[in-house]
Amino acid sequence: MSSLVIDMILCGIAYVLLIYFIATMNKPPFNSDKNNNGDDGDGGIEDTTPPKIDLPPGVIWPSEGPKSKKPTSPMEV
């Protein structure tokens, strides 16, 4: 056998082993506590409302703008 074939076989084996070890290390660890339910123990009340951002004077949010526009009379030139 040529040295190129041997090198290709060894590289293939190394690749398979590397993928195997990466896959086994990325698995989540076995957790024996079934009642955990993903609770990280922070506690308290969860507030999902977004914070009120302080805007510069004269700037308003589009949702706080005027609700309807009154039609203006046509201008005569």
From TrEMBL:
Organism superkingdom: Bacteria
Annotated keywords: Membrane, Transmembrane, Transmembrane helix
Residue intervals passing through the bilayer: 6-23
Region: Disordered, residue numbers: 30-77
Protein name: ATP synthase F0 subunit 8
